Amino acid sequence: MPTIKILPHPEYCPQGASVSAPAGTSICEALLDNDIKIEHACDMSAACTTCHVIVREGFNSLNELDETEEDLLDRAWGLEPNSRLSCQAIVAQSDLTVEIPKYSINHAKENH
């Protein structure tokens, strides 16, 4: 089963983490299933950018981006060439290393 290494994030994963995820699972689902409360304002329907992650290792093992995801990513904070919406990035057989950006564009989030 592939492993997803999550780099430290001050709010969601201060010490970093490593979780296992079956192939065919989205990165977002894998994080949520392991109590890493990544934002996902649209309930994983590919309608926002709050679950944006940067895939530091294993990017090419993920499914291809579709046009909807590409268009949404253009609005994500801290966009990089290896950015993905974690709700749309499907884990294959390779291990991954992901970084959750410090900020997201979520106007509805409390504590702003």
Would you kindly provide a written description of the structure presented here, covering whatever features stand out?
With 112 residues, the protein is α+β, with helices and mostly antiparallel strands. The chain is 12% helix and 19% strand. It contains two helices and five strands; from the N terminus they run ββαβαββ. Strands 2-1-5-3-4 form a five-stranded mixed β-sheet. The longest helix has 7 residues, at 27-33. 29% of the residues are buried.
Question: What features would you highlight for this structure?
Answer:
five-stranded mixed β-sheet; 112 residues; 2 helices; 5 strands
Instruction: State the distance separating the first and last CA atoms.
Output: 37 Å
- Taken from the alpha-carbon principal axes, the silhouette is globular
Number of strands: 5
Beta-strand percentage range: 15-25%
- Strand order of the biggest β-sheet: 2-1-5-3-4
Question: On the 0-100 scale, what is the average pLDDT?
Answer: 91
Q: Which regions have little confidence, pLDDT < 50, spanning 5+ residues?
A: none
Largest sheet report = 5 strands, mixed
Q: Mind telling me the C-alpha Rg?
A: 13 Å
Helix content: 10-25%
Tally of helical segments? 2
The sequence of SSEs as H and E is: EEHEHEE
Family: Belongs to the adrenodoxin/putidaredoxin family.
Keywords: 2Fe-2S, Electron transport, Iron, Iron-sulfur, Metal-binding, Transport
Cofactor: [2Fe-2S] cluster
Domain 2Fe-2S ferredoxin-type: 2-104
